[in-house]
Amino acid sequence: MPNPHSTAQDVHAVDFDKALIARLAGNGPRYTSYPTADRFSNGFDQTQFLSETQRRFSAEQVRPLSLYVHIPFCDTVCFYCGCNKVITANRSHAARYLDYLEREIALQAPLFTGRARVEQLHFGGGTPTYFTDQQLTRLMASLREHFAFTPATEGEFSIEIDPRKVGSETVAQLAALGFNRMSVGVQDFDPVVQHAVNRIQSEAETVAVIEEARSCGFKSVSIDLIYGLPRQTLGGFAATLDKVIAIRPDRLSVYNYAHMPHLFKTQRQINAAELPSPDTRLDLLSLAIRRLTNAGYVYIGMDHFALPDDELAHAQRKGTLQRNFQGYSTRDDIDLLALGVSAISKIGGSYSQNVRDLGSYYAQLDAGELPLLRGIALSRDDLLRRSVIQQLMCHFHLDLQQLSTEWQIDARSYFAEEWQALSMLADDGLLVLDDALLQVLPRGRLLIRNIAMQFDRHLRESKVMSQAPPLQRYSQTI
């Protein structure tokens, strides 16, 4: 029986079994939260949010805090994108949005004054650098005025970058503002694929931004790739991987393209006939895993790779890795306050999402209200299952004895209904299971979403009662 305290080699081992993946992979949540966002309710209001925040951030201690700021604007549309975005060349929209962001900051900050210290910051979008250097400076000044920040040498302050829109002056300015981590969108360097998805981006401009970031002292650079895009081939993607490996980013995300034009209108501009076959998609993934691991990267989980000395790999080995709405995080169980349209916060035992459109966002702030749309207060069962799913997604094992002690339950009895499905996955070689331990094996790690789904009570109940949303609302698990 494997030891729950796996070695570094065990933690990062992954076995690509194409036949097994083809047989078992289906649709399912990514578990950036549990319960998933489709379970949030419009009944969760400002009163509940304030109550949970005041309970979590009492005057008794200063707690670490993560801030996320959503900047939805883009100059041009990438056809594959499923993010909440506004495509416009009218820069006055950015100026107005910044005004309202500052209103939301001013409303939120008193809940955390003297009680929170910002250890993580992430600007996402959209394209965060749609804001001018002056607007980004103003936004950072507002955040620092209202929140206490840990020193830059200790904090993780990151921003998503579109290399097509950023010059060396902006990179230097971001460093001066305290940003020390950068996520760079690439997706694929193959010009045929770039034309098919309306994102023309050269290797030279990408390398230039990354080199400037390194010269300005950025501690970590991450590159995003996507497999399964239209007109993608093994040869073309292999060339992209060679170029990316030569750049040597600290981290890599290799996402599976989720073609859901019924949910994302921009994807309707993609010719579905040009998408790779399911068999080819798996070959693309296998190629990426093989090339990256041969180049010295380790598999973190759920599309993510990192160099062995990167903080993500260290956090996984130490047991402090966390999963949130930005992917994987190095800080264990940190509260997240999200600002801006559609942004989702995680405060204690609750999730809350802001309204999704600019008109509603502005109207609620004009009324002096937090721009909340929906949310959920977690039950004890939700909190327990969230803990289990987090442990599996981040560390690939579950110590059932420790779980029983921590939650004052008999884990084997509590999850009796899940045991049968888990036993079937064990028969397929995805995991080892007994009364003391659930250990995900290397051939099960690519299918970790399938394993986590067994603990999703809300998903099981919706299936039993034939309630929406069906699994088609979710992306493929691999």
UniProtKB/TrEMBL annotation:
Q: What family does the entry list?
A: Belongs to the anaerobic coproporphyrinogen-III oxidase family.
Question: Which terms are listed as keywords in the entry?
Answer: 4Fe-4S, Cytoplasm, Iron, Iron-sulfur, Metal-binding, Oxidoreductase, Porphyrin biosynthesis, S-adenosyl-L-methionine
Recorded catalytic reaction(s): these are: coproporphyrinogen III + 2 S-adenosyl-L-methionine = protoporphyrinogen IX + 2 5'-deoxyadenosine + 2 L-methionine + 2 CO2
Q: What processes does the entry annotate via GO biological process terms?
A: protoporphyrinogen IX biosynthetic process
Q: Is Nucleotide-binding among this UniProt entry's keywords?
A: no
Q: Which InterPro entries match?
A: Aldolase_TIM, Coprogen_oxidase_HemN, Coproporphyrinogen-III_oxidase, Elp3/MiaA/NifB-like_rSAM, HemN_C, rSAM, rSAM_sf
Which residues make up the binding site for S-adenosyl-L-methionine 1?
Y68, G125, E160, I344
Which amino acids does the record list as binding [4Fe-4S] cluster? Answer: C74, C78, C81
Cofactor(s) recorded for this entry are: [4Fe-4S] cluster
Which pathway or pathways does this protein act in?
Answer: Porphyrin-containing compound metabolism; protoporphyrin-IX biosynthesis; protoporphyrinogen-IX from coproporphyrinogen-III (AdoMet route): step 1/1
Q: What is its EC number?
A: 1.3.98.3
Detail which positions bind S-adenosyl-L-methionine 2: Y80, C81, G82, G126, T127, Q187, R199, D224, A258
- Which GO terms label this protein's molecular function in UniProt? 4 iron, 4 sulfur cluster binding; coproporphyrinogen dehydrogenase activity; coproporphyrinogen oxidase activity; metal ion binding
Against Pfam families, the record matches this protein to: HemN_C, Radical_SAM
Taxonomically, the superkingdom here is Bacteria
Q: Could you tell me what this protein does? A: Involved in the heme biosynthesis. Catalyzes the anaerobic oxidative decarboxylation of propionate groups of rings A and B of coproporphyrinogen III to yield the vinyl groups in protoporphyrinogen IX.
Q: What binding details are noted for the cofactor?
A: Binds 1 [4Fe-4S] cluster. The cluster is coordinated with 3 cysteines and an exchangeable S-adenosyl-L-methionine.
Which organism does this record belong to?
Answer: Andreprevotia lacus DSM 23236
The name this protein goes by in its record: Coproporphyrinogen-III oxidase
* UniProt-annotated location(s): Cytoplasm
